[in-house]
Design goal:
- There is one protein chain.
- By secondary structure, this protein is of the alpha/beta class.
- Helix content is 36%, strand content 12%.
- The chain contains 13 helices and 13 strands.
- The chain has a seven-stranded mixed β-sheet, sandwiched between helices. The protein has a four-stranded antiparallel β-sheet with strand order 10-11-13-12.
- Helix 3 (52-62) crosses helix 4 and helix 10 crosses helix 13 (371-388).
- The protein is globular.
- The structure holds pyridoxal-5'-phosphate.
- Residues 51-53, 56, 77-78, 80-81, 122, 148, 150-151, 172, 174, 185 line the site of pyridoxal-5'-phosphate.
Amino acid sequence: MYVVGDEEIEAIARVIRSGKLFRYEDDGECERFEKRYAEYLGVSDTALTVSGTYALSAAMIAVGLGPGDEVLIPAHTYMATATAVLTTGAIPVIVDVDESITIDPSAVEAAIGPRTKAIVPVHMWGAACNMNAIMEIAARHGLKVIEDACQGVGGGYEGRKFGSIGDIGAFSFNYYKNMTSGEGGAVSTSDKELAKRARCAIDPCHFYWTGREDGIEPFAGNGGRASELQGAMLNVQLDRLDGMISAMRAEKKKIVDATGRLNNLGLKLSPMNSPDYDCAAHVMYLLPSAEQASRFVKVFPVVIAGKTGRHTYTEWDQVLMGIGAAHPAMNPYNHPDNAGCRRTYAKDMCAGSLDILNRTVMVPTRPDHSEAETDAIIHNIEVAARVAFGEMEADAAEVRPTGALDPKKFDMAGSGDIGLAS
Ligand SMILES: Cc1ncc(COP(=O)(O)O)c(C=O)c1O
């Protein structure tokens, strides 16, 4: 979900006219955004990056992962969660998700071994992981928690924002996220030491530009520094975020309330870990069988979680093939320190997750839906469910249009009622 209007165009134009496109200017856009976003999340530091993938890598480097370490990641996430682990030289260990389609705390507990160093809860589709359980397990076993909040921009768990609960968090601002600068990302943490290490991972030369002596031992890293164009756009996007999220929450609530009557048909909501605080980007239903889920989406063409083509471990080719780096000598799967790690995968290793994911249908919300469009979604869910549960023939199911995103509605200077700048 993204909304972009004239304010972003003007903010970017201002930066271009100023000629100051490089960050580290006094009162620059990146610096301003980092301060504002840290305050928004309730953490002491955020650091901008070129992408969510880079933010994840920097977060993992910051906590000190490396060869010999195993990192627990969920069976359902974008491949970057796994590849970011590999960039540190550590090995991703894939564990099941539960019916919330986020990492299953009991699977985490069962998967902890002598090499385990960290857990990566991924707030998939903006829905919260069971953070109380994960933090408790991590504390008991002395593990680091890296929140992958790339899909959870603006959402939270029991009143705390995603990215502020674990040791460190990572966000994506790519084109599909709740805030966007085309591409982009950020690391968040309240641990000063981790923040310094993350900044070094993002820009190993930042000491030179900022004149800051960060008091950490510097190390070499790739460059993942953001530009002022990104910072400028994100400063506007941040003004829109809460309005968008509350509009999506309102739509989700309306859909959830209205489709509660389909419970007796057998249509059940997926269990959610923090339904009042997540991004509300989707209303998810867990059908009794994969076949019923397929029948549902044939009528109302929404997505089955297990069929997106890229968000399930069975689709992460490089990982499954053990190609963890471009050069074989740098491949963590070949590294002698990883000899004692669990390094092999099989397509059926998380069969329970595949079953859940292939039964989960996700109906997207949108902040700009009119009442009539939300009513059309509710109608479509009902007819799709009736077909899925064999109460209606597919030919008799008539779906209604649910509208197309109109970014102009959100121009903050215009008549938009969402995301007004404060
Ligand atoms: C869960 C998750 N992690 C990481 C990423 C990587 O973010 P980016 O595409 O900005 O590199 C994404 C992107 O879609 C994601 O969904």
